[in-house]
Amino acid sequence: MTFAGRRPTGPAVPAGAGATMRTVGVEEELLLVSERTGEPLAVSSAVLASAAAEGDDGEDVLEKELHQEQVEFATRPLADMGAMREEIVRWRGEVGRHAERAGARVAALATSPLPVEPSRNLGRRYRWMAEQFGLTTQEQLTCGCHVHVSVESDEEGVAVLDRMRPWLYLLNAISGNSPFWQGVDSGYSSYRSRVWNRWPSAGPYEPFGSAEGYHSRVRDMLDTGVLRDPGMIYFDARLSHNYPTVEIRVADVCLEPDTTVLVATLARGLVETAARAWREGEPAPDFSAGLLRLASWRAGRSGLQGPLLHPVTMRETSAETALGALLTHTEHALRDTGDHEAAVKGIETLLAHGGGAQRQRELYEEGRDLAEVVRACARITTGEL
User: Fold this and answer.
1) What residue ranges carry the coiled-coil annotation (predicted)?
2) pTM score, two decimals?
3) Which residues touch 185 (CB under 8 Å, ≥6 apart)?
4) What is the C-alpha separation between 308 and 190, in angstroms, rounded?
5) Is the pLDDT of residue 14 over 80?
6) Most CB atoms closer than 10 Å: which of 112, 182, 252, 372?
């Protein structure tokens, strides 16, 4: 199915109109695994120590996560998606190099295909989470891809959050890369999204209406005592508490760098489209969070195979139709940044050949065991395969 030439919706801003292109930053969480067995290895401290010993910027780019079997890197804020791809490839390679020094490989897998009992990292915050949330904390060895898109103010950011709500789950469908859980096929494209939504603050949200409405809701949630700090506000998208950005948090970490770039491209398109709609006085869609939870579940279950819920009607449709609607919705914004052709091609390629979840299943169905699936995915992650 081709998406070229579809009629765009929403207000158009001509290219070269003088608007500053929004910057995008990507955070990828990666698994650390054994080359021999494919099982996750608790060596994040050694990986971070290796980066720190070199005295380069790796010490600032790489960070620990909840469990010792994973590590995260963050790109710089960039406007050009070609540069974004180069940086993602570079840092995957750097993490891989430091992982090898620690006797491990790095794999862009959103869940471990093999059974694992994760080892929690040390620290007061992580200890508090384990005491507060029990088994939910222990089970959260999941790897996501978070996309930060710059906004001019909290008011613009909240207007964007309110207007993006019915489109976000499509990014989870595109990125689905976690079909296996504890040694079995989960039946999901993104089982990570189901595990992640066990956190009490995670998932779709009701509209906020204004920046004050957003901050008031966050204060109310923190005042309950259930959450420790603003970093535990796990909405599908939120205002970053560290940067002047909207942070979109629905995607699995993607097996291929090109899929990560596609997710980042579409995320920026959604932010810009929503901001333009706000400036034009268009109201935010009024779908309930409950309805969006169903759409999110459907996306995690079906992924690129479909069906998905249509983001305008909230009725079942094919993945091709739902993703075509996404491209139509964001077309003006994508054309203005020069990303439309690449986005169309990226969607068409994924629909034709599948994404990370399908690739993992194909590797397994070729007669390989799950350990070999992990090894193959590690080679894909660092560009060897």
Assistant:
1) none
2) 0.94
3) 179, 361, 364
4) 13
5) no
6) 252
